[in-house]
Amino acid sequence: MSGPTSADRGSSSGERGSERVLGDPQADLALTRGFLSGSATCIHGLGERLRIVPRILRGLNARSGRPLDEHDLADLVQDTATVILRKLDRYDGRAEFDGWVYGICRFEFLNAARGRRRRPRPVEDVELELPVSSADGAEVLNRISADIDSGLATLTDSEREVVRMKHFDDLTFESIGERLGCSPNTAKTRYYRGLTKLQEFMEPRRKEYEA
């Protein structure tokens, strides 16, 4: 009796979810189609397969000289997983699923790394670089804090809200987007636009802190 065909293996993989024949794109295709149709076992199976996403991104980051810090990577993992799920219906089984995922991870990583190099320094970096003597340190820090509040007041409501959520609540862009009812990319755009305005507001005051 002949062994099971690739189609048989793909069908059984779709039913069992996490069980797959290694290197069988048709089994991968059955898994993704099962996920899209709402199969509980396939949902679990795909979740297990997507555990490679953070490993891929960390590896890319390490080989590229670590342009992204841990917070950046955490945001990127969530953003990339969202992109993969959004494009899942485009996976056609002509290549292994892991290779298809790697291609998306690499594309998203390169975009994030380029954006990181163009990104303005965080507010806390500007604050910490301001020279403060031990004698008047408390007074100067109070002035810096007051100026940051004044700078935040110059932002639009949406920019200010995102900056506060990111810096003071330490939320990811995914979480911010969920709270505000917008996409993570929209949250990022508002954040960096607001951060740039805030840094421009703070820059002329550096000499006052040094006086």
UniProtKB/TrEMBL annotation:
Origin species: Engelhardtia mirabilis
This protein's name: ECF RNA polymerase sigma factor SigE
**A Gene Ontology molecular-function term?**
DNA binding
Q: Which NCBIfam families match?
A: sigma70-ECF (TIGR02937)
Q: Give the family this protein belongs to, as stated in its UniProt record.
A: Belongs to the sigma-70 factor family. ECF subfamily.
Positions of region (Disordered)? 1-23
Keyword Aminoacyl-tRNA synthetase appears in the UniProt entry: no
Q: Which UniProt keywords apply?
A: DNA-binding, Sigma factor, Transcription, Transcription regulation
Which InterPro entries would you find in this protein's record? RNA_pol_sigma-70-like, RNA_pol_sigma-70_dom, RNA_pol_sigma70_r2, RNA_pol_sigma70_r4_t2, RNA_pol_sigma_r2, RNA_pol_sigma_r3/r4-like, WH-like_DNA-bd_sf
Which gene is annotated as encoding this protein in its UniProt record? sigE_10
Q: What's a GO biological-process term for it?
A: DNA-templated transcription initiation
> Entry's CDD domains?
Sigma70_r4
RNA polymerase sigma factor 70 region 4 type domain boundaries? 148-198
Residue span(s) of domain RNA polymerase sigma-70 region: 69-119
